[in-house]
Specification:
InterPro entries: ADH-like_C, ADH-like_N, ADH_Zn_CS, ER, GroES-like_sf, NAD(P)-bd_dom_sf. This protein is an alpha/beta fold and 346 residues long. The protein is 28% helix and 24% strand. A hairpin with a 5-residue loop joins β1 and β2. The chain is globular.
């Protein structure tokens, strides 16, 4: 089969690799029907994730059709149309029993495109299939479902839920890339009073307002001005970091009110300053996290029932064999206007 592999920092190759096979009774092999690219894949290609070794098939988000299941898979059969979650656990260890699959001690967690071959391929082996896969209703398209593989549950669990977004809360989201935009959409489920988004790209600010932000501003100065008018200068109740660089994390810490919460979602490849000399006295909570995908069934129901509108997040579409072109578009959003890309296996 064809797949895209990481061959060291800055190098990705689309070429023939061996077909996946069942390696454990709880595995399934899935034909990839649709796949997408994540900002985390770009971090891997920059060398920010040293656990990813040369030769690894990239990708952790896909929709597909099961071709084979192991003897230990009970909930799925060949022919089922499924969503593949970016994270899945063994279901037996301490963390999985607490629905913290991202911290699985039994060989799960974030494995696809990280510790084992991933989804940017014609086929993929999915461990812990009963926990990793979600059967898709006919009302949900492949393109819609792709957004539930990672960005929507990540934005909701690590950003909105960890960030303690509540009815009537004031929310600031730093970064209007795919995760930041997904944070707007899922934050709105909690009916906050105001959502402010900070991003230097005008196209992404327009997308933020289209998807439900009350205000989108270009820089820190404008963010502090909005803080004065919307929060009486106190700061925002919940601040979500959706970029992953030191400057944006530090901005979040400056925007949060005493007693508020900073939820870091971005993948950081460098150290960021934590100014405890200022924060210790302000009762500020700072959270981090890897998505557990415990919210995926709920988000899937909302999507199927038309309660969660994802239109507008996918801006570019390609055939699977055009994946190099898709990467070129996705990694230059300032030039291409790309938010999320979708690739389809014909």
């Amino acid at each position: 089969m064809k797949a895209l592999t990481f061959e060291g920092p800055g190098r990705r190759v689309w070429h023939e690799v061996p077909d996946p096979v069942i390696a454990d009774p709880e595995d399934a092999v899935v034909r990839v029907d649709a796949v997408t690219i994540c900002g985390t894949d770009l971090h891997i290609l920059k060398g920010d994730v040293p656990e990813v070794t040369p030769g690894r098939v990239l990708g952790h988000e896909a929709v597909g059709t099961i071709t084979t299941v192991g003897t230990g898979v009970n909930g799925f059969t060949a022919g089922d149309r499924v969503l593949i979650s970016c994270v899945a656990g063994c279901g037996r260890c301490r963390y999985c029993r607490e629905n913290q699959d991202g911290q699985c001690l039994g060989g799960g967690g974030w494995t696809l495109g990280h510790l084992i071959d991933g989804t940017q391929a014609e086929q993929v082996r999915v461990p812990f299939a009963d926990r990793a896969l979600h059967r898709l209703p006919d009302a949900v398209t492949d393109e819609q479902a792709l957004l539930l593989a990672d960005i929507l549950p990540t934005a909701y669990e690590v950003g909105v839920r960890n960030g303690r977004v509540r009815p009537g809360a004031t929310v600031a989201i730093v970064g209007a890339g795919p995760i930041g935009l997904a944070a707007i959409m899922t934050a709105r489920l909690m009916t906050p009073s105001r959502i402010v988004v900070i991003d230097p790209a005008s196209g992404r600010r327009e997308a933020a307002e289209r998807l439900g932000a009350d205000l989108a501003v270009p820089d820190a100065a404008a963010a502090f001005e909005s803080m004065k008018t919307m929060t009486d200068g106190l700061g925002f109740d919940s601040v979500i970091e959706a970029v992953g660089i030191p400057e944006t994390f530090e901005l979040c810490a400056d925007l949060v009110r005493p007693g508020g919460t900073v939820a870091n979602v971005g993948v950081h490849g460098a150290s960021a300053a934590l100014h405890l000399e200022r924060l210790w006295i302000r009762n500020v909570t700072i959270t981090t996290g890897l998505v557990d995908t415990s919210s995926t069934p709920t988000l899937l129901r909302l999507l199927a029932d038309g309660r969660l509108a994802t239109e507008g997040l996918v801006t570019h579409r390609f055939g699977l064999d055009e994946i190099q072109d898709a990467y070129d578009v996705f990694e230059r959003p300032q030039d291409t206007g790309a938010l999320k890309v979708a690739l389809f296996h014909q």
